[in-house]
Amino acid sequence: MIVSLYRDDLNSQLNGIQVSEIRQFDEVASSIPDILKLTLGEPDFNVPTHVQLAAKKAIDNNFSHYTTNAGIPELRQAAANFQNQKYGLHYQANNVITTVGASEAIAAALTAILNPGDGVLIPAPIYSAYSPLIALNHGVEVRINTRTNNFVLTPELVETAVQAHPELQFKAIVLNYPNNPTGITYRKNELEKLIAVFQKYHLWVISDEIYSELTYGEQHTSIATLIPEQTILISGLSKSHAMTGWRLGFIFADVALIEQIKKVHQYLVTSATSIVQKAGVEALTNGADDGLKMAKEYVQRRDYVYREMTSMGFEIARPDGAFYIFAKIPAEFNQDSMAFCQDLAHKNHLALIPGHAFGTEGEGYVRLSYAADMARLHEAMKRLRAYMTDSTNKN
């Protein structure tokens, strides 16, 4: 018999943290028979064959021991070259840390820069991982509600948020673009307007650009091209190469800062998986454009779902990247986002994510992931339309 030694004097910040509502809802929905899930942010494509073969070769060659903490030099240089060639940056291998996914990259960056009580600005609605990491590092999160401006952050919104909290020393702002959950992204002229206020308040910009290869229309612009000395750039291969389970991410920053973040990274994970690092080299060199092939299909899916859902009465800020639709629930449905998604899942066997999972700023919305083939999306729209046209579901 095991006698519990659990005590309640753990890190007090854990008391305000819950398991992600995205994961919670996905698990509940999974138990419903015949459920069609458009919930998780995971590409439905397979990892490119040539990347798989690179991993197998690494296994055959017994490349199974510790690597250097920041990752093998050839991968770090490949990651730097990828950013330089794609987005006009100027990184070298010593500007890069290889991490266990973008999530660990964000955790390591926040841990490295935050002191207790430091303020961190968060444009919202936003993916749920950032807030708990800020809290665990005893930072103070201040959210900026962007839904008043069609989910686009402006210098005025940043200025207002800072001025509303004179008691705080603001250390950083987290940008995620293309954005999860809205799919909104920023063009160069929009970023140029933002950097003035970021420089005014000496903010580190933790720029999560994991969806950079999945932009539709204009070429992605990294804010690191404008203020490299203030930017901590986060990227990875989960979205561009469908390698979610392989857990390979990157931090790019000034060399002096990289040396400090590397300390955190070392004591969190030691190093990323050796075999996956070899696969990463292949993905970033011979597979540099693999994500663009997926993006072409995502555009067709986006256009179809956007057209169908707007015809059903949803209001949607048309996404320019990632693979999400963030849709406002029509007013005649007198339910909050959780109740709406639960009802839809149980009655019509379609699972979407409640907007509340992305903060109170997302209440009244639902997020749909169109990382699914067209056959599944056609069926999903059929089920959604049946629910939306059933008068018993309305006020």
From TrEMBL:
GO BP terms: amino acid metabolic process
Q: Which UniProt keywords apply?
A: Aminotransferase, Pyridoxal phosphate, Transferase
Q: Look up the signal peptide feature and give its range.
A: none
A single Gene Ontology molecular function, please? pyridoxal phosphate binding
Checking CDD domains in the record gives: AAT_like
| Cofactor(s), by name | pyridoxal 5'-phosphate
Which segments constitute the Aminotransferase class I/classII large domain? 34-384
Q: Which domain of life is it from?
A: Bacteria
Transferase recorded as keyword? yes
- The UniProt record lists the EC number as 2.6.1.-
What the entry lists under InterPro entries is as follows:
Aminotransferase_I/II_large, AspAT/PAT-like, NHTrfase_class1_PyrdxlP-BS, PyrdxlP-dep_Trfase, PyrdxlP-dep_Trfase_major, PyrdxlP-dep_Trfase_small
Pfam families, from UniProt?
Aminotran_1_2 (PF00155)
Q: What class of enzyme is it?
A: transferase
Q: Which family does it belong to?
A: Belongs to the class-I pyridoxal-phosphate-dependent aminotransferase family.
Sorted alphabetically, which NCBIfam families does this protein's record hold? PRK07309.1
Protein name as it appears in the record: Aminotransferase
